[in-house]
Amino acid sequence: MAVGAPTTIDDAFRKRFPKSAELYARSRRAIAGGITHDSRNFAPFPIYIERADGSRKWDVDGNELIDHWMGHGALLLGHNHPQVTAAVAEQVHKGTHYGACHELEVAWAEQINRMVPSSEWVRFAMSGTEATMLAMRDARAYTGRVKIIRFAGHFHGWHDYAMAGYQPPFDTPTSTGVPKAVAESMLVAYPNNIDSVRELLDAHPGEVAAVIVEPGGGSNGIVPTSVPFLRDLRTLTSQRGVVLIFDEVITGFRYSPGGAQQVYGVTPDVTTLAKIVAGGLPGGAVVGKRDILQVQTFKGELHKDRFERVLQQGTFNANPLSAAAGFTALRIVAEGWPTEQANQAGEQLRAGLRDVFERRGVAGVVLGESSVFQILLGEGMEQAVETTDVQRLMAGRGAVNTLRKAMLLNGVDLMRSGGFTSIVHQDEELAHTVSAFDRSLEALQREGLA
Ligand SMILES: Cc1ncc(COP(=O)(O)O)c(C=O)c1O
Fold it and tell me: Which of 3, 75, 270, 326 could form a disulfide with 279 if both were Cys (CB 3.0 to 4.6 A apart)?
């Protein structure tokens, strides 16, 4: 399995994954850019997967991989959890779309309300992107204000409003095609710096509708967020009548059955959910105070319903398949042991990876909490964490393409610079990932990349 000494990582990769190369060439003729998600942009080509089970997936060349991408974090219970699979299979035969209300969506929402501290009411959407977009619209409608404060380096999906302040330089939207007026309605503050939030609130009195934050840290923990900062944010937003939105698309049901808000003891006004909430199928939700979410309800008065209401539609919202998967998965997560087990695996893995860094004398850090890990390469990363140097931390993903390639050659699929642990990552899988990291760093060192 080890990368052979005479070949480069890139040569070995091309040799190991020839069918993926062929598929990518074919894909580039059919699909714009050849990929369906920017994060699958990978040189020289992305790998193509044929099937997955438990902690593993198998590519079109027959390579077995330990999966830490885990459905972008949606699969806390691993691939094909038997109860989730059975619930979806049963539902397939009962109909995949009723174009109508159904009992499972009610049960699913009730389950979320029981689990998430801030959840009094639920509205379903189809993705995290839709959830953050809707949460911003709800907050704007509720407060009658336009501007939203977000944090440098935090990720909230790919809609126009989420593109401001995501990647450096933070004053320029991360995507082209975003109208200037949209970008200007977003204000960028600095994580762990409550003064930067206060200054923006002071500079725009009565204009700020909401503050949105990834409570577990920007870009899935690459920019760690301190809990005292979250508490200060709660106090400040309450004082100023500003809606506090926790984007728990990743941390929801992962950090604990009630999300990061339950672990940290900080309750936002509104929470956005996706990934685990739908048990590995497409889905998302905005949950929060009834007082705020009532902006979406019909009042039965023509004028109010036309001029004082937030519109939300979506053909596949709370479709029966997603509802079956989500409801089943959440009931299992509510038992508590899945998060505990995945968290324990996360701790074990982070410790193992840190040992490798130390033994090899390579500069870098392993970040993350709960069942998330992030590997950042380069000098001065500890200091960047201490000072919340967002730019530096995000640059730590620099050599990530080569590291991921080396890890794939050693039988492990990282999610870019890190990934997730789940209930199916046990001692054997974790030991494999740690030794793959050791061999990968060795290969990077050989090529002068670490
Ligand atoms: C914190 C956060 N918010 C929003 C999103 C967007 O979710 P989706 O990919 O379902 O649109 C993501 C996706 O990774 C995320 O991590």
Answer: 326
CATH number of 9-79+336-446: 3.90.1150.10
Domain ranges of the chain: 9-79+336-446, 82-333
| Per-residue confidence (pLDDT) for residue 1, from 0 to 100 | 45
Ligand 1: atom nearest CA of 127 is 10
Q: Find out whether the beta carbon of 248 lies less than 6 Å from any atom of ligand 1.
A: no
For the segment(s) 82-333, the CATH number from 3.40.640.10, 3.90.930.50, 3.30.300.30, 3.40.50.2300 is: 3.40.640.10
Are 432 and 348 contacting, i.e. CB atoms less than 8 angstroms apart?
Answer: no
Give this prediction's pTM: 0.97
Q: Dump strand ranges (E) for 300-430.
A: 364-367, 372-377, 412-413, 418-420
Q: Is the CB of 132 under 6 A from ligand 1?
A: yes
Per-residue model confidence as pLDDT tens digits over 393-449: 988 776 678 999 999 999 999 998 899 999 999 999 999 999 999 999 999 999 988
Residue ranges of the chain with per-residue pLDDT less than 50: 1, 3-4
Q: The tokens 């040799």 sit on which residue?
A: 15
Q: 191: cis peptide before it, omega within 30°?
A: no
The span from the CA of 348 to the CA of 371, in Å, is 10
Residue 249 Cα to ligand 1 midpoint, Å, equals 6
